[in-house]
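Entry 12.
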Amino acid sequence: MRGLVDIRFRRVSTRTLLPIIYVLFLLMSVAIPIAIAVAVVQFAVLLGVLFLVFVAPLLAFAMAATMRLVFEFLISIHRLGSKVTHMSKLADDIHTSLNEVAVPMSHLSEDVRAVQFWRFKKR
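Predicted 3D structure (tokens):
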């Protein structure tokens, strides 16, 4: 409930709402073919029974499978996005660490160049 009233989207409600929405879509995937069958029965009884026996189960299965695939795709995209965010944070940490090492190394190389002990004076 808190996730629904959060207008700034600070809280992610997808994981908690997804099972409820999926159950509603499953119920709709059964109710819609039955409603169509009732409409067809009003037109012709034999046609309505044939629709209810042969077409309605396939239609219900197709609707349920489609919703399942869509939801699994959305979950996969969400997981991929969270992994990319994590990898981006790791890259930022590595960049910061390398900068912390690079600055002292550049100072050290300048100091080594200043001390020229390997060059002997020509006599």
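Annotation: The mean pLDDT is 85. Helices lie at 2-5, 14-43, 45-114.
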